[in-house]
Amino acid sequence: MSDIILGIIGSGQLGSLLCQAAKKLNIKTIVFSDDEFGPAQNYSDKFIFGKYNDKNKLEEFISKVDIVTYEFENIPFKILKRIDEERKVLPRPEINQTVQDRKLEKNFINDLGIMTTEWAFIKSAEDIKKNKKLLPGILKTNTLGYDGHGQFVLNSLDDIKKDWCFTADYILEKKVNLSKEISVIISRFGNNEIYTYEPIENIHKNQILKHSKIPADITHEIFKNAQYKAKLIAEKLDFIGTMCVEYFIDQDNTLLVNEIAPRVHNSGHLTINAFNISQFENHVRAVCGIKNEKVRKISNAEMINILGKEIEEYRSKSFSDVEFFFDYKKKVIKDKRKMGHLTILKN
Ligand code: ADP
Ligand code: MG
User: Fold this and answer.
1) Is 344 a residue whose pLDDT tops 60?
2) Which partner from 99, 195, 254, 316 sits 20 to 30 angstroms from 235, CA to CA?
């Protein structure tokens, strides 16, 4: 029995799956979340509900845990830094600060000599006009984006709405004519101990992940290159835990980094059933300093995200022994909300 109590900030499906992985390793979990109904409370040993800037709740959380990690990147840096004064936060707060800000994130990646989409930092309609060469493009809020929230397609300058007042910062990205999207999940334990999962092929619909599979239908060169770049990024960030690098492949077979997720990732859900050690278990092992087990692939696999009302039909379905249905047990069904997933093992 381990004595470690792992604190997890955020209570969605990623938090739930982290709690389940921790339980397997006999590690107790305390989840801190501003969502009263966050499903991770079904799996954690304790649940603290409160606003992240609620001093009392935050101090209660800090006092009860040994190590802190997080399931999402949009946590104010100040909060992570406050926790880090008392308890180690992994991945380090500075990493999260870089990755939650698209401008800092892209500068970091480009400074490593790694290509992203062409992009520019935008504060006004005037800035978009100056960067007309990036159209057709996608305007994205510089912070707080997820699942396509805060994104606007701009086909031409006419699409700039007169009433936009640019109260937030944005980046404008050239729209890539995608041949494919892939991601690489990587777990780093420090001291050059690293496990890189094979690239996963992803299909998005309306900017939300719908479908993932291994093996990805890519060339050997892209396979190696994607793993190499993910490794370089993880090393340069001095990352501890599991992270994900999302890539675009364009029509010329050029590999571009889309973004980094400094956390376990939806495209890696298939690692639960397709590998002996999942991305979640590797994350818990890395942040808690538990020796990493040799990772083995068990099977090829496909994962389907179940969005919104689709969950109702899955709840009454029966499944074969190569199909693994995960119901996130979210209280409210909302359009486009990730409600569960199904992983199917393949030959
Ligand atoms: P989020 O932070 O919401 O995940 P992303 O930047 O990853 O935002 O965008 C979500 C999805 O939208 C991508 O996976 C891709 O399918 C599509 N997308 C985003 N940016 C571009 C782009 N510049 N060119 C083409 N497709 C894009
Ligand atoms: Mg993304």
Assistant:
1) yes
2) 254
Rounded Cα gap, residues 38 and 13, in angstroms: 9
pLDDT, mean over the chain: 96
Measuring from each residue's beta carbon to the nearest atom of ligand 1, which residues come in under 6 Å? Answer: 117, 138, 145-148, 173, 175-176, 178, 181, 204, 207, 246, 258-259
Q: What is the pLDDT of residues 193-244, one digit of tens each?
A: 999 999 999 999 999 999 999 999 999 999 999 999 999 999 999 999 999 9
For a ligand 1 pocket test, name from 115, 138, 245 the mutation site with the most ligand atoms within 8 angstroms of its C-beta. Answer: 138
Q: Name the pTM for this structure.
A: 0.96
Q: Which two tokens stand for residue 68?
A: 């802190």
CA 299, CA 345: separation in Å to the nearest integer? Answer: 6
| 231 alpha-carbon distance from chain centroid | 16
